[in-house]
């Protein structure tokens, strides 16, 4: 490094010093690496998501790093001081390992120097490409010399260690424990922003404009530049919101100006960030400052919460129109109109029903938050990504359908009464639990943004929004229970109610049929036959129960016990996930499966893309596909306009899709995005029409 003859200013000295420190540390890592202690302060271990990779597959590798207390490792750009890790590989012929991918770092200032570090256990992920011609049973020994810098607040130690793992070419099966561990690591990687950011450098400042949904919360944002030498790392950053942009203002480095692009990561929450590339362009003036606590300036956080809560309430009300919920709601509502019902009894049943719904939604929220805290990319409808839950719901809905059809009554244990003519708080409560359980597969209108925002709020706010969703679902029944005028509008009870009950069994049978179809898509024909066989046995047992009830026998429900035991055994001992048996993924003819790499390539080619995310258990998704996406006029218009169609199938849960949805501020399907040729991204409504889609082509 050469210095100008003139004495450098104080600012220049301060900027030069970190570069010198980093150069010395890097040199020390090279020279002293061979003599360094073997992982003295950071334990390193090489892991693979599967030990039996399939020929031609891509396998995720992880360099797992566990620092000792008060020690830390470094991000890809260490900041003012430090050095990133690297591996010198020794690989079998034809095997390739991609670059390291780093999780979102933390900040650490030591003696005035800003460091981008990891003070907790972390993992650096890489992609291993297995040759297509590799024969099953072929051993693949991966080995390399890893080097990293371990630092404490007072000393830095260059460390190295041999890392290795033995793989055997096989079927590519991933053990559930391994998948969960790697999903946890992947969840901490920055997500691709997917939209162009811009920057401008003038007046000693570097300013960024980063696209970010207007209503999406952000916690403690900070920009970590991957491009070195652009900003003064230790100087504070000013971040504000301007419409659907985050405006980041940073002090420029005194050593040079940015080049054609600035790469980096914008942190938006704990272990959450977006990877972006900013290019020269216009940056708007600063907007509403984001305060140190991480939320918007006074009133902003509450406005976001209020909007999300309102969306959850409206979305919950609309869930009552689901074909599996409407029959239950209708029968319970009509039961309040029967003769002899008092206002007090109506209010008790309404409150109990609402309690069942709200507590069920809160329980779902807590389970979802727990899964996400463990690193799983779970979202709304996560329970239906497990075939065991779908199987359990298939049996439950089959029993409900047969009950509504009049085949049996289980008054002894309360199920039949809870669904039809039961009085009191207990039957109404369990009816609310059932309604919440079977009403939550889809993200309907008003719900998408609300639930997406909930999962980025603090846990208390997230649970409150899910409780609001449950309140919205229970609101119609609460209104009928507390407003006598509404009950008087309901028809008077009579023999017609029994006929209506039988008629409402039809949509429940259709729901059971839909669940059977989803089960077949998830686990294949063989397991579908098992599920249908169990449903048939359940139907025969319930028919026997009904016959015993008609003869007035005691313990009429006893024939159900062996079937219930068999169903419980199937649920408990069945695998959590099974590879889908369908020959092709869900999606319109000619659609490509979702891939972030392929999407980026199409954007680079400036090709318009219609990207949508769906699941077989999502009713809204299937309606949109049949009514709009797969219509011949739409396919023809897209083909003529050169629009690529890409589909993400979330039926069985895909961590990559889950993380991408989260980056868009969503937590469930459906989601419809249109990428214009000029780089603009348009989020489409959740209810599509052929006219809307052909308009995109025009």
TrEMBL record:
Top-rank taxon: Bacteria
Membrane topology: Multi-pass membrane protein
GO-annotated molecular function: protein-disulfide reductase activity
GO biological process terms on file: cell redox homeostasis; cytochrome complex assembly
Keyword hit for Amino-acid biosynthesis: no
PANTHER family named among the record's database cross-references: SUPPRESSION OF COPPER SENSITIVITY PROTEIN, THIOL:DISULFIDE INTERCHANGE PROTEIN DSBD
Protein name: Thiol:disulfide interchange protein
Organism (species): Rhizorhabdus dicambivorans
